[in-house]
Amino acid sequence: MTKQKVSFFWFRRDLRLEDNTGLFHALQSDSPVIPLFIFDEDILEHLPKNDARVTFIYDSLAKINSELEKLDSSILIKKGKTKDVWRSLIDEFDIQNVFFNKDYEPFAIKRDTTISALLKEKNIECFSYKDHVIFEEKEITKADGLPYTVYTPYKNKWLEKYHFSGSAPEYDAVPFQSNFTKKQFKFPDLSEIGFERSAIKVLPHNLTQIANYKETRDFPALDSTSYLSPHLRFGTVSIRKLVNWANRKNHTFLSELIWREFFIQILFSFPNCVNHNFKSNYDGIQWRNNEEDFKRWCSGTTGYPMVDAGMRQLNETGYMHNRVRMVVASFLCKHLLINWQWGEAYFAEKLLDFELASNVGNWQWAAGTGCDAAPYFRVFNPEIQQKKFDEKGEYIRKWIPEFDFGYAEPMVDHAFARDRAIATYKAGILK
Hints:
This protein folds into 3 domains: 1-130, Rossmann fold, CATH 3.40.50.620; 209-271, no CATH class; 280-428, DNA Cyclobutane Dipyrimidine Photolyase, subunit A, domain 3 (Orthogonal Bundle), CATH 1.10.579.10. Helix content is 46%, strand content 8%. The chain contains 18 helices and 5 strands. The chain starts with a strand and ends with a helix.
Protein backbone atom coordinates (compact mmCIF):
# COMPACT_ATOMS: atom_id res chain seq x y z
CA MET A 1 0.00 0.00 0.00
CA THR A 2 1.37 3.40 -0.99
CA LYS A 3 2.07 5.67 1.93
CA GLN A 4 0.73 9.24 1.74
CA LYS A 5 3.32 11.95 1.30
CA VAL A 6 3.26 14.20 4.39
CA SER A 7 5.21 16.91 6.15
CA PHE A 8 5.62 17.11 9.91
CA PHE A 9 5.61 20.11 12.20
CA TRP A 10 7.34 19.14 15.45
CA PHE A 11 6.04 21.06 18.48
CA ARG A 12 8.51 21.49 21.34
CA ARG A 13 8.57 24.72 23.37
CA ASP A 14 6.10 26.52 21.07
CA LEU A 15 2.73 25.15 22.14
CA ARG A 16 0.39 27.36 20.12
CA LEU A 17 -1.11 27.60 16.64
CA GLU A 18 -1.03 31.40 16.61
CA ASP A 19 2.06 33.28 15.35
CA ASN A 20 4.25 30.19 15.23
CA THR A 21 7.12 30.68 12.77
CA GLY A 22 7.91 27.06 11.95
CA LEU A 23 4.24 26.11 11.71
CA PHE A 24 3.57 29.07 9.41
CA HIS A 25 6.22 27.80 6.99
CA ALA A 26 5.20 24.15 7.34
CA LEU A 27 1.63 24.89 6.31
CA GLN A 28 2.90 26.36 3.05
CA SER A 29 4.68 23.15 2.05
CA ASP A 30 3.40 20.92 -0.75
CA SER A 31 2.33 18.07 1.54
CA PRO A 32 -0.37 17.80 4.23
CA VAL A 33 1.06 18.69 7.64
CA ILE A 34 0.93 16.34 10.62
CA PRO A 35 1.41 18.22 13.92
CA LEU A 36 3.59 16.19 16.28
CA PHE A 37 4.64 16.31 19.92
CA ILE A 38 7.07 13.85 21.49
CA PHE A 39 7.12 13.26 25.23
CA ASP A 40 10.86 12.64 25.42
CA GLU A 41 11.77 9.86 27.86
CA ASP A 42 15.28 11.28 28.26
CA ILE A 43 13.61 14.27 29.96
CA LEU A 44 10.64 12.56 31.60
CA GLU A 45 12.68 9.94 33.45
CA HIS A 46 14.12 12.65 35.72
CA LEU A 47 10.72 14.10 36.72
CA PRO A 48 8.24 13.15 39.47
CA LYS A 49 5.04 11.49 38.23
CA ASN A 50 2.95 14.49 39.27
CA ASP A 51 5.22 17.14 37.71
CA ALA A 52 3.16 20.30 37.25
CA ARG A 53 4.98 21.25 34.06
CA VAL A 54 4.06 17.97 32.39
CA THR A 55 0.42 18.60 33.33
CA PHE A 56 0.65 22.07 31.79
CA ILE A 57 2.24 20.72 28.59
CA TYR A 58 -0.45 18.04 28.38
CA ASP A 59 -3.27 20.57 28.84
CA SER A 60 -1.71 22.93 26.29
CA LEU A 61 -1.54 20.08 23.77
CA ALA A 62 -5.17 19.19 24.51
CA LYS A 63 -6.12 22.78 23.74
CA ILE A 64 -4.20 22.64 20.45
CA ASN A 65 -5.92 19.35 19.62
CA SER A 66 -9.35 20.87 20.24
CA GLU A 67 -8.53 23.70 17.85
CA LEU A 68 -7.27 21.22 15.25
CA GLU A 69 -10.46 19.14 15.53
CA LYS A 70 -12.40 22.17 14.27
CA LEU A 71 -10.24 21.85 11.13
CA ASP A 72 -10.91 18.07 10.88
CA SER A 73 -7.34 17.45 11.99
CA SER A 74 -5.53 16.38 15.16
CA ILE A 75 -2.12 16.25 16.80
CA LEU A 76 -0.02 13.10 16.91
CA ILE A 77 1.33 12.46 20.42
CA LYS A 78 4.26 10.08 20.87
CA LYS A 79 6.31 9.01 23.88
CA GLY A 80 9.79 7.52 23.77
CA LYS A 81 13.41 8.25 23.02
CA THR A 82 13.31 10.98 20.38
CA LYS A 83 15.52 9.21 17.84
CA ASP A 84 13.53 5.97 18.22
CA VAL A 85 10.27 7.85 17.68
CA TRP A 86 11.57 9.46 14.51
CA ARG A 87 12.79 6.12 13.19
CA SER A 88 9.30 4.67 13.63
CA LEU A 89 7.69 7.71 11.98
CA ILE A 90 10.02 7.36 8.99
CA ASP A 91 8.89 3.74 8.63
CA GLU A 92 5.20 4.61 8.99
CA PHE A 93 4.92 7.71 6.78
CA ASP A 94 6.34 8.95 3.48
CA ILE A 95 7.85 12.07 5.06
CA GLN A 96 8.82 14.84 2.65
CA ASN A 97 9.74 17.63 5.08
CA VAL A 98 10.12 18.22 8.78
CA PHE A 99 9.73 21.71 10.28
CA PHE A 100 10.55 22.85 13.82
CA ASN A 101 11.56 25.92 15.77
CA LYS A 102 15.07 26.23 17.19
CA ASP A 103 16.03 25.69 20.79
CA TYR A 104 19.37 27.01 22.03
CA GLU A 105 19.99 24.87 25.12
CA PRO A 106 22.93 22.40 24.89
CA PHE A 107 20.72 19.30 25.23
CA ALA A 108 18.33 20.58 22.57
CA ILE A 109 21.10 21.50 20.15
CA LYS A 110 22.57 18.00 20.47
CA ARG A 111 19.13 16.40 20.01
CA ASP A 112 18.28 18.49 16.97
CA THR A 113 21.65 17.85 15.36
CA THR A 114 21.09 14.10 15.79
CA ILE A 115 17.56 14.17 14.37
CA SER A 116 18.52 16.46 11.48
CA ALA A 117 21.30 14.03 10.53
CA LEU A 118 18.88 11.09 10.68
CA LEU A 119 16.38 12.88 8.43
CA LYS A 120 19.07 13.90 5.97
CA GLU A 121 20.26 10.30 5.81
CA LYS A 122 16.70 9.35 4.75
CA ASN A 123 16.57 12.19 2.18
CA ILE A 124 14.01 14.12 4.20
CA GLU A 125 14.27 17.90 4.05
CA CYS A 126 14.61 19.54 7.46
CA PHE A 127 13.82 23.20 8.18
CA SER A 128 14.37 25.04 11.48
CA TYR A 129 13.33 28.56 12.41
CA LYS A 130 13.89 31.25 15.01
CA ASP A 131 10.72 31.55 17.10
CA HIS A 132 11.07 31.97 20.87
CA VAL A 133 13.45 34.94 20.69
CA ILE A 134 13.53 38.14 18.67
CA PHE A 135 17.27 37.91 18.03
CA GLU A 136 19.18 34.64 18.14
CA GLU A 137 22.67 33.21 18.22
CA LYS A 138 25.00 35.81 16.69
CA GLU A 139 22.49 38.48 15.63
CA ILE A 140 23.44 40.82 18.49
CA THR A 141 27.22 41.05 18.78
CA LYS A 142 29.92 43.59 19.48
CA ALA A 143 31.71 45.28 16.58
CA ASP A 144 34.33 42.51 16.59
CA GLY A 145 31.64 39.83 16.23
CA LEU A 146 32.05 38.52 19.77
CA PRO A 147 29.04 38.08 22.07
CA TYR A 148 28.17 40.69 24.66
CA THR A 149 28.76 39.62 28.24
CA VAL A 150 27.39 42.81 29.83
CA TYR A 151 23.65 43.45 29.71
CA THR A 152 23.39 47.21 29.10
CA PRO A 153 25.37 47.39 25.82
CA TYR A 154 23.58 44.22 24.69
CA LYS A 155 20.22 45.85 25.44
CA ASN A 156 21.20 49.05 23.58
CA LYS A 157 22.25 47.08 20.49
CA TRP A 158 19.12 44.94 20.75
CA LEU A 159 16.86 48.00 20.85
CA GLU A 160 18.75 49.66 18.01
CA LYS A 161 18.26 46.62 15.79
CA TYR A 162 14.63 46.14 16.82
CA HIS A 163 13.68 49.75 16.14
CA PHE A 164 15.55 49.75 12.83
CA SER A 165 13.31 46.92 11.63
CA GLY A 166 10.19 48.68 12.93
CA SER A 167 8.80 45.74 14.94
CA ALA A 168 8.99 41.98 15.18
CA PRO A 169 7.08 40.28 12.32
CA GLU A 170 4.06 38.21 13.31
CA TYR A 171 3.09 35.12 11.31
CA ASP A 172 -0.58 34.52 10.50
CA ALA A 173 -1.03 30.87 9.53
CA VAL A 174 -4.86 31.00 9.35
CA PRO A 175 -4.97 31.28 5.53
CA PHE A 176 -3.00 28.04 5.25
CA GLN A 177 -4.72 25.92 7.93
CA SER A 178 -6.51 23.80 5.33
CA ASN A 179 -3.13 22.15 4.80
CA PHE A 180 -3.29 20.33 8.13
CA THR A 181 -3.66 16.62 7.54
CA LYS A 182 -7.22 15.28 7.90
CA LYS A 183 -6.09 12.35 10.04
CA GLN A 184 -7.67 11.71 13.44
CA PHE A 185 -5.04 10.52 15.91
CA LYS A 186 -6.01 9.28 19.37
CA PHE A 187 -5.23 11.81 22.06
CA PRO A 188 -3.80 9.84 25.02
CA ASP A 189 -4.76 10.08 28.66
CA LEU A 190 -2.13 11.60 30.93
CA SER A 191 -1.78 8.20 32.61
CA GLU A 192 -0.80 6.63 29.27
CA ILE A 193 2.22 8.95 29.24
CA GLY A 194 3.07 7.68 32.71
CA PHE A 195 2.07 10.78 34.67
CA GLU A 196 -0.71 11.94 36.97
CA ARG A 197 -2.34 15.33 37.22
CA SER A 198 -0.57 17.79 39.49
CA ALA A 199 -2.41 19.84 42.10
CA ILE A 200 -0.11 22.78 41.24
CA LYS A 201 -1.57 24.99 38.51
CA VAL A 202 0.02 27.26 35.94
CA LEU A 203 -1.97 30.48 36.26
CA PRO A 204 -3.34 32.37 33.27
CA HIS A 205 -1.18 35.28 32.16
CA ASN A 206 -2.59 38.78 32.53
CA LEU A 207 -0.96 41.88 31.07
CA THR A 208 -3.43 44.22 32.80
CA GLN A 209 -1.73 43.38 36.12
CA ILE A 210 1.50 45.06 35.01
CA ALA A 211 0.05 48.44 34.07
CA ASN A 212 2.21 50.03 36.79
CA TYR A 213 5.02 47.50 36.52
CA LYS A 214 7.85 49.98 37.01
CA GLU A 215 6.44 51.21 40.32
CA THR A 216 5.04 47.97 41.74
CA ARG A 217 7.17 45.08 40.44
CA ASP A 218 9.39 44.86 43.56
CA PHE A 219 6.53 44.44 46.06
CA PRO A 220 5.52 40.77 46.30
CA ALA A 221 2.31 41.36 48.28
CA LEU A 222 0.81 43.44 45.44
CA ASP A 223 0.59 40.49 43.04
CA SER A 224 1.36 42.86 40.18
CA THR A 225 3.22 40.45 37.93
CA SER A 226 1.99 39.07 34.60
CA TYR A 227 2.41 35.31 35.32
CA LEU A 228 3.77 35.12 31.79
CA SER A 229 7.00 33.26 32.51
CA PRO A 230 5.71 29.64 32.25
CA HIS A 231 3.80 30.61 29.11
CA LEU A 232 6.97 32.04 27.61
CA ARG A 233 8.92 28.96 28.66
CA PHE A 234 6.57 26.59 26.86
CA GLY A 235 5.59 28.94 24.06
CA THR A 236 1.86 29.19 24.68
CA VAL A 237 2.32 32.90 23.91
CA SER A 238 4.25 34.58 21.10
CA ILE A 239 7.38 36.50 22.10
CA ARG A 240 6.89 38.73 19.04
CA LYS A 241 3.41 39.79 20.12
CA LEU A 242 4.65 40.40 23.66
CA VAL A 243 7.66 42.47 22.60
CA ASN A 244 5.63 44.54 20.16
CA TRP A 245 3.07 45.19 22.91
CA ALA A 246 5.75 46.05 25.50
CA ASN A 247 7.49 48.39 23.07
CA ARG A 248 4.24 50.34 22.75
CA LYS A 249 3.05 50.13 26.35
CA ASN A 250 5.66 49.14 28.93
CA HIS A 251 9.38 49.73 28.45
CA THR A 252 10.30 48.42 31.91
CA PHE A 253 8.69 45.11 31.06
CA LEU A 254 10.43 45.16 27.68
CA SER A 255 13.78 45.38 29.49
CA GLU A 256 12.94 42.18 31.36
CA LEU A 257 12.16 40.42 28.09
CA ILE A 258 15.54 41.56 26.76
CA TRP A 259 17.24 40.15 29.89
CA ARG A 260 15.72 36.79 28.93
CA GLU A 261 17.27 36.98 25.47
CA PHE A 262 20.60 38.14 26.91
CA PHE A 263 20.84 34.99 29.03
CA ILE A 264 19.76 32.77 26.10
CA GLN A 265 22.56 34.32 24.04
CA ILE A 266 25.05 33.75 26.88
CA LEU A 267 24.06 30.09 27.18
CA PHE A 268 24.34 29.57 23.43
CA SER A 269 27.76 31.24 23.26
CA PHE A 270 29.12 29.82 26.54
CA PRO A 271 27.41 26.45 27.12
CA ASN A 272 29.96 25.49 29.80
CA CYS A 273 28.36 28.03 32.15
CA VAL A 274 25.67 25.45 32.93
CA ASN A 275 28.13 23.50 35.10
CA HIS A 276 30.97 25.97 35.63
CA ASN A 277 31.46 29.50 36.89
CA PHE A 278 31.28 31.96 34.02
CA LYS A 279 34.17 33.75 35.72
CA SER A 280 36.73 30.99 36.15
CA ASN A 281 38.74 33.08 38.62
CA TYR A 282 35.93 32.33 41.10
CA ASP A 283 36.71 28.61 40.97
CA GLY A 284 38.82 28.82 44.11
CA ILE A 285 35.92 29.75 46.41
CA GLN A 286 35.66 27.24 49.25
CA TRP A 287 31.92 26.68 49.58
CA ARG A 288 30.71 25.30 52.90
CA ASN A 289 27.95 23.21 51.22
CA ASN A 290 26.42 22.19 54.54
CA GLU A 291 23.59 19.77 53.81
CA GLU A 292 21.57 20.59 56.94
CA ASP A 293 21.75 24.30 56.14
CA PHE A 294 20.60 23.53 52.60
CA LYS A 295 17.61 21.55 53.88
CA ARG A 296 16.55 24.49 56.05
CA TRP A 297 16.81 26.81 53.06
CA CYS A 298 14.78 24.42 50.88
CA SER A 299 12.04 24.03 53.48
CA GLY A 300 11.80 27.75 54.32
CA THR A 301 12.91 27.44 57.94
CA THR A 302 15.94 29.75 58.04
CA GLY A 303 14.44 32.25 60.50
CA TYR A 304 14.61 35.02 57.89
CA PRO A 305 10.99 35.80 56.93
CA MET A 306 11.58 37.04 53.38
CA VAL A 307 13.70 33.98 52.57
CA ASP A 308 11.29 31.54 54.19
CA ALA A 309 8.18 33.04 52.60
CA GLY A 310 9.78 32.82 49.18
CA MET A 311 10.81 29.20 49.57
CA ARG A 312 7.41 28.18 50.90
CA GLN A 313 5.69 29.96 48.02
CA LEU A 314 7.95 28.07 45.62
CA ASN A 315 7.35 24.69 47.25
CA GLU A 316 3.58 25.15 47.38
CA THR A 317 2.90 26.87 44.04
CA GLY A 318 5.90 26.60 41.71
CA TYR A 319 6.13 30.39 41.62
CA MET A 320 8.38 32.89 43.39
CA HIS A 321 8.32 36.66 43.05
CA ASN A 322 11.38 38.03 41.23
CA ARG A 323 12.53 40.35 44.02
CA VAL A 324 12.26 37.47 46.48
CA ARG A 325 14.23 35.19 44.13
CA MET A 326 17.17 37.60 44.42
CA VAL A 327 16.94 37.59 48.21
CA VAL A 328 16.75 33.80 48.61
CA ALA A 329 19.54 33.22 46.08
CA SER A 330 21.85 35.73 47.73
CA PHE A 331 21.10 34.15 51.12
CA LEU A 332 22.05 30.66 49.93
CA CYS A 333 25.28 31.71 48.23
CA LYS A 334 26.45 34.44 50.59
CA HIS A 335 24.95 33.79 54.03
CA LEU A 336 25.26 30.00 53.86
CA LEU A 337 28.16 29.79 51.40
CA ILE A 338 26.46 27.04 49.42
CA ASN A 339 27.41 26.64 45.78
CA TRP A 340 24.95 28.33 43.41
CA GLN A 341 24.60 25.04 41.53
CA TRP A 342 22.71 23.54 44.48
CA GLY A 343 20.17 26.35 44.37
CA GLU A 344 19.98 26.28 40.58
CA ALA A 345 19.17 22.56 40.65
CA TYR A 346 16.47 23.04 43.31
CA PHE A 347 14.84 25.84 41.34
CA ALA A 348 15.02 23.67 38.19
CA GLU A 349 13.05 21.00 40.03
CA LYS A 350 10.41 23.33 41.47
CA LEU A 351 9.89 26.35 39.20
CA LEU A 352 6.98 26.25 36.78
CA ASP A 353 8.88 28.67 34.56
CA PHE A 354 12.21 26.83 34.73
CA GLU A 355 14.29 27.84 31.75
CA LEU A 356 17.93 26.78 31.80
CA ALA A 357 19.43 30.00 30.42
CA SER A 358 17.64 32.33 32.84
CA ASN A 359 18.01 30.00 35.81
CA VAL A 360 21.76 29.58 35.38
CA GLY A 361 22.21 33.25 34.46
CA ASN A 362 20.32 34.57 37.45
CA TRP A 363 21.91 32.16 39.93
CA GLN A 364 25.39 33.07 38.75
CA TRP A 365 24.37 36.74 38.94
CA ALA A 366 23.37 36.26 42.58
CA ALA A 367 26.54 34.32 43.39
CA GLY A 368 28.76 36.92 41.70
CA THR A 369 30.32 34.26 39.47
CA GLY A 370 28.45 35.06 36.26
CA CYS A 371 28.61 37.58 33.46
CA ASP A 372 27.50 41.08 34.46
CA ALA A 373 27.00 39.72 37.97
CA ALA A 374 26.37 41.44 41.26
CA PRO A 375 29.80 42.12 42.85
CA TYR A 376 30.82 39.49 45.39
CA PHE A 377 30.77 42.02 48.22
CA ARG A 378 27.10 42.81 47.60
CA VAL A 379 25.26 40.76 50.20
CA PHE A 380 21.51 41.31 50.43
CA ASN A 381 20.31 41.96 53.98
CA PRO A 382 17.04 39.98 54.13
CA GLU A 383 15.67 42.12 56.96
CA ILE A 384 16.26 45.39 55.08
CA GLN A 385 14.76 43.83 51.94
CA GLN A 386 11.70 42.93 53.98
CA LYS A 387 11.33 46.46 55.38
CA LYS A 388 11.72 48.01 51.92
CA PHE A 389 9.45 45.69 49.94
CA ASP A 390 7.04 44.09 52.45
CA GLU A 391 6.94 46.65 55.23
CA LYS A 392 3.54 45.53 56.58
CA GLY A 393 4.47 41.85 56.35
CA GLU A 394 1.52 40.98 54.08
CA TYR A 395 3.51 38.70 51.81
CA ILE A 396 5.34 37.12 54.73
CA ARG A 397 2.17 36.35 56.72
CA LYS A 398 0.56 34.77 53.65
CA TRP A 399 3.26 32.11 53.51
CA ILE A 400 4.38 31.92 57.17
CA PRO A 401 1.24 31.41 59.31
CA GLU A 402 3.33 31.12 62.49
CA PHE A 403 5.11 34.43 61.86
CA ASP A 404 3.43 36.23 64.78
CA PHE A 405 3.85 33.38 67.27
CA GLY A 406 6.70 30.96 67.73
CA TYR A 407 8.62 31.86 64.57
CA ALA A 408 12.18 30.54 64.43
CA GLU A 409 15.25 32.61 65.26
CA PRO A 410 17.64 33.39 62.35
CA MET A 411 19.89 30.41 61.68
CA VAL A 412 22.89 32.71 61.18
CA ASP A 413 23.62 36.30 62.15
CA HIS A 414 23.59 38.62 59.13
CA ALA A 415 26.65 40.66 60.07
CA PHE A 416 28.67 37.52 60.81
CA ALA A 417 27.52 35.84 57.57
CA ARG A 418 28.29 38.92 55.49
CA ASP A 419 31.82 39.22 56.85
CA ARG A 420 32.40 35.49 56.40
CA ALA A 421 31.16 35.60 52.79
CA ILE A 422 33.34 38.55 51.82
CA ALA A 423 36.41 37.00 53.44
CA THR A 424 35.76 33.63 51.76
CA TYR A 425 35.29 35.22 48.35
CA LYS A 426 38.41 37.36 48.76
CA ALA A 427 40.47 34.33 49.69
CA GLY A 428 39.01 32.19 46.89
CA ILE A 429 39.13 34.52 43.89
CA LEU A 430 42.08 33.45 41.78
CA LYS A 431 44.43 36.17 40.63
